[in-house]
Amino acid sequence: xxxxxITTPTAGMTTATTPLxxxxxxxxxTADPAPLGLAAFAMTTMVLSVVNAGxxxxxxxxxxxxxxxxxxxxxxxLAGMWEFRRGNTFGAVAFSSFGAFWLSYWFLxxxxxxxxxxxxxxxxxxxGIGLYLLGWAIFTGYMTVASFRVSGAVAAVFVLLTLTxxxxxxxxxxxxxxxxxxWTKIGGWLGLATALAAWYASFAGVTNxxxxxxxxPTWPMAPSARAH
Length: 228
Description:
Blueprint: H1 34-52, H2 65-86, H3 89-112, H4 116-119, H5 125-147, H6 152-174, H7 182-211
Subcellular location: Membrane
Membrane topology: Multi-pass membrane protein
Family: Belongs to the acetate uptake transporter (AceTr) (TC 2.A.96) family.
């Protein structure tokens, strides 16, 4: 039997086995997008709510459109996509949906309300707006149920936002010009409270992450780990 095919290790050679499957590089961590999404929501909500509450003239409502397009809409939509990447279903659904809400608000105010078809039935437009707000009230209501497994800070945002949508919805159905309804003004003040709560949650998230410890409380409400 010949041994001419046997390779003998020489200096500088190794006999270590090369792995059959390459080891993939460690995935880069994705930063928490929630503080960004909450901040975008808070600022846009605050500006619109100042008008709804009657603090500023209703004619100034279009000033929120730039925020609705770029910050409340675009930035929140991006935050929602990053939440999908992190595997956070609640955050993904919430930020993606409210990003779409602000984008739809921008589109509605910029193009739809001035369309000839709606101008012809101007006296009934407030009912369409009421239906639009009713849909968002329903969505926010069931997201509020899920928020009670996130944190007290987030739950406060969703409770207040649900009340805001309900008040604005009633105001839209009750008055041909919704901005004149007392319910719309109540919705404006509730919206301001919602914006403050969202800013608090954003502040807590970015501060606690930066300091790597709990500096600003959020009162987590996650379910307890199951016993094994």
